[in-house]
């Protein structure tokens, strides 16, 4: 089961529709075009087109499964008392006083450029259920880091 925002769910549905309406016909056309070039036993273009179609179908099936198992989180029922999924958390790295802001989201919605980290990451796991003012030690690949939670909000 994947908990996610309504926005994240809508993006997945749009991506699925795009793959089925645009990419699937392109893949079929590429196979037909390669098939028209003759002997299939030595036609690497045909093999590549079939493999691309198989990857596309796999991606479509995984998206369908994710969408089917998605649980949309009602943000109005969440609290900013403690860190949870969809919390926007402002932190201070106590080793260098660097300020950072992360929003904790589902695996499918994670995008570091947008400051959205997966709930599966060590940082998100270390922050869950913590409150403003708490100092947390989190083990990351580079060692153990200390963060202070400065603010928790919901978007």
Descriptive notes:
With 155 residues, the protein is an alpha/beta fold. 40% of the residues lie in helices and 27% in strands. The chain has three helices and seven strands. It has helices spanning 6-35, 44-69, 122-127, and strands spanning 2-4, 70-72, 87-93, 98-105, 116-118, 135-140, 143-154. The strands form two sheets. The chain has a five-stranded mixed sheet. The longest helix is centred in the first third of the chain and has 30 residues, at 6-35. The protein is elongated. The two termini are 22 Å apart.
Helix content: 40-55%
Largest sheet: 5 strands, mixed
Number of strands: 7
Order of helices and strands: EHHEEEEHEE
What does this entry show, briefly?
The chain is an alpha/beta fold and 155 residues long. It is 40% helix and 27% strand.
Features:
alpha/beta; five-stranded mixed β-sheet; elongated
Describe the secondary-structure layout.
Layout: E1 2-4, H1 6-35, H2 44-69, E2 70-72, E3 87-93, E4 98-105, E5 116-118, H3 122-127, E6 135-140, E7 143-154
Parallel strand pairs: 1-2, 4-5
Antiparallel strand pairs: 3-4, 3-7, 6-7
Helix pairs in contact: 1-2
